[in-house]
Each structure stands twice: as C-alpha cells, then as structure tokens.
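Protocol step 6 of 9: fold each sequence in the batch and record its structure tokens directly after the sequence line. For illustration, a two-sequence batch is reproduced in full.

Sequence one:
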Amino acid sequence: MSDLLGKVALVTGGSRGIGAAIAKRLAADGADVAISYASSPAKAATVVAEIESLGRRAFSVRADQGHRGQVAGLIRQVHEYFGKLDILVNSAAVFITGPVDDANADLASFDRQQAINIDGVVTAVRTAVPLLSDGGRIISIGSTVAESTPFPGFGDYAATKAAVAAYTRAWARDLGARRITVNVVQPGPINTDANPETSDFAPVVAKMTALGRYGQPEEIAAAVAFLAGPDANYVSGATLNVDGGLA
C-alpha cells in the first residue's frame, strides 16, 4: 500500500508493543516515521532498521514523555529532521493501578502517570499544531477502561485515558478549519510484553470479549493506519474501540 506515500509520522512510545506495530504499519503504508522511546534504545534501533528495510526514512529520539520540555523538543526535532510533520500518534503511556482507599498508595507514581498519559499528550499536541500540515492527523491511543472499568484499582489510569478522549473531541473542533482530524483509538486487551495473552489472568479477560481472545498490536495499528489515511478524511472527534467486543 502507498496511501501515506510522502507523509511524515511521529509515533511516541514507538520502540515496543502497540507503538512499534503502529510505526511499522505506517511505514508499510508509505510514510517516513520517527519514533520516541524512554529506556529501550536497542528496541528502538530494531524498529528503525525494520522501517528502513521498507525503503522509508526513519530515526528515533530518546524523550521522557513525562517531561514537557523533552516532549516539546521531540516534536521540534522531528519537524526539523524531515522538514514537515503530517501525522502525530500519541502512543506512549504507563499503566499504574491501585485502589483509591489504599492508605499506603505510591502517590508519586500516580502523579507520574498523569504527567505521561495526559500532560505528555497535551504538550505533544500543543507543540505539534503550529508545525502540522493542514489536513494532518492526530491520533491518540486510549483505552476502553475510559468508558467501562470492570476491575477495582483502575481509577487513576482510567481517568487519564478518559481525559485523552475528552481532549480529542475538543481538539477536533479547534482544528477542523485546517482539516486536521483528531481521533482516539481505544484498545481492549492486547497481547504485549506488559499484558501478555499467556498470563495467568488472560483467560478471564479473553472470555469478556465477544471474540474470546486477546487482540494483537497489529490490529490496533490497522485502525490507526485507517485514521491516518485518506479514507478517513471525514472522521474526526471519534472514539474507535478496537476491543473484540469487550463486555
């Protein structure tokens, strides 16, 4: 496919899991792709090499998504390197759980989660908007727990993803005049290193889906590729659940 030929994309958190799958799919569809990573340079280098093997330009940038200055610097560096930016995918995130009535909760970790999952996304978008091409794309990776929280202890994480969905709807209004679409993809249970389909708890979660299985990172990447491409020109402010029919 070449739907994205000539486009430039940035995928935050693109060195592993869902982010890596998205970066490789966008490249397969024709885009030049930059990725950011926090602590896995070897994995980032592998993703860059795979993108380059497809004949696309690629590079990686180390950036702490919880540090506003580093996030803003990342956006500017990608724009300077490629000379433009067409697609921003906010994939970097952390997953911290704990019940609200835990008197010994590590509040610093929850603050860090908000800094990465909310502030990092907001900073990336605010920095990218003046640089983003008219008709560009902003796609964030949320979570179905923003709408339904089936297990205890998910409150803080769910709130960060709900915030991203709310921002998405508002930003779509803000940027519509420039034909920039803003959407959020909300995965259900996806087979990644952090949430493997082989874990002891996985069968319970899989049974909660209509399809009876975990999804694969490539299935989230396919949804992102659709939203990034020309067939999604009239899709903005949308929340797309890719969850196998999660109950």
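Sequence two, same batch, same settings:
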Amino acid sequence: MKISGNTILITGGGSGIGRELAQRFHDLGNTVIVAGRTTATLEETAQGRARMHVLTVDASDAGSIAAFAKEAIARFPQINVLINNAGIMKREDLTHGGDTAIAEETLVTNVLGPIRLTNAFIGHLAAQADAAIINTTSGLAFVPLASTPSYSASKAALHSWTVSLRTQLAGKVEVIELAPPGVRTELTPGQSEVEAYMPLDDYAAEVMDLFQQVPTPSEILVQNVLPLRNAERDGRFDQMVAALAGH
C-alpha cells in the first residue's frame, strides 16, 4: 500500500483506534475523511488538520451507507483507500437464552456494515490507482473471548470474508486485514483502564511502522496479537480460550 498521497476514508474515526489511524495517516501526507455517527467526535479528530474532512454514516443502516457512499464519492472522487473500522463490542450471557438483540446488532454492524460499505465503494475503488481496502478485525477472530461471543464471531466472519475478498480482488485492489489485540480504548466501558491491554499510542505507532513496510503485509499484526493469531497453529487454542475466560 502506498503510504502517502492517498485519499483515505475511514469509518469509526471519532475515537479509539480509528481516530489514531486517521490522524497518523493524515500526518504522513494523506487526505483523510473520517466517518461515523457522531459529528462532534469526528470534528475533534479533524481539529487543526487541514486535509481532514468529516462525514456522518450509520454503519448498521443500509440506507445510510448507500447515501453516504454517494455523497463521499461525489465530494471526494480521489478516494482510493477504504478503511472499514467501525464496530461495536458487548458482553452477553448465553446461559439463559432468549434475547438475540445484541447478536443481531453486532452482526449487522460488524459484518454487514463492512460488506455493505465495500460493495458501495468497490466499483469506484477498482478504477483508482493504488487502491486498497483495510478491514479491522481482532485477535478475537482467532481465539474467542467467551464473554463477548457475538463480537468474537463477527470478527471471525470478517476475517474469513476478507480472505475471500483479497483473493477475488488480486491484482485490482489491495486488501489488508488489521487485527488488534486488546487495546486501551473505550470500545467497552472501562477498557481504557485495563493494564493488561496495549496502550493506544503504542499500538498505533507499531501499526504505522508495519504499514510502512514494503511490501505492506496482508495482515497487520503487532507483537501483542501474535499469541492469538497463532494459537491454533501452535497447539495452544484451548489453553488460550481458557485463559481469556479467566479459567
């Protein structure tokens, strides 16, 4: 992936990993459009950065995505990089059954959202030079966190879908997977205070170093996520599942 001179669209750009990536890509010489549901937080991300712009979209709503894609392409026809980063993570108790609201919300946002966004932009991207799609999955795509089953399943699904997308778009659009470990953000309440998780600034710095490798890795994996990514290969899958569950 070309590291500068792009026009990058990133969802979930109002906080956490999305904000850090948006600002760091901007500061490397890219035009960046940050997108999400809340204008105020997006404007905080963009504050003081002349080549950063704000658009709103609800990644859980098909109609919102269609209207957003039309507006984004009309206003910024040079878009050549799409970063599907928006997502939600909620805990679930599966022991009593019943309500599937969290599962439905999670799968619509974390799986259908990136699929719909990719579908909306792929025709445009395929016609651009140096085009790339980056999908944010998770280390939990490879070893689930039992307390967030739908989130873990959604990221496993997006990982698999990304592999297929990469294969189908080979030679046309570069497809990259970004799989974070636990990072100190507010993805879930209190997560930014968890000492065992990676500081956001450290994570973003290591990620940007990986993006600047030539060629860009097809999977952006910081050192902290490798035990999850390689658990099955290394024969440690069951052990890692139990460790994440606190057993």
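Proceed to step 7 once all outputs are recorded. Observation for sequence two: The beta strands are 7-11, 31-36, 52-56, 81-84, 132-136, 174-178, 219-220.
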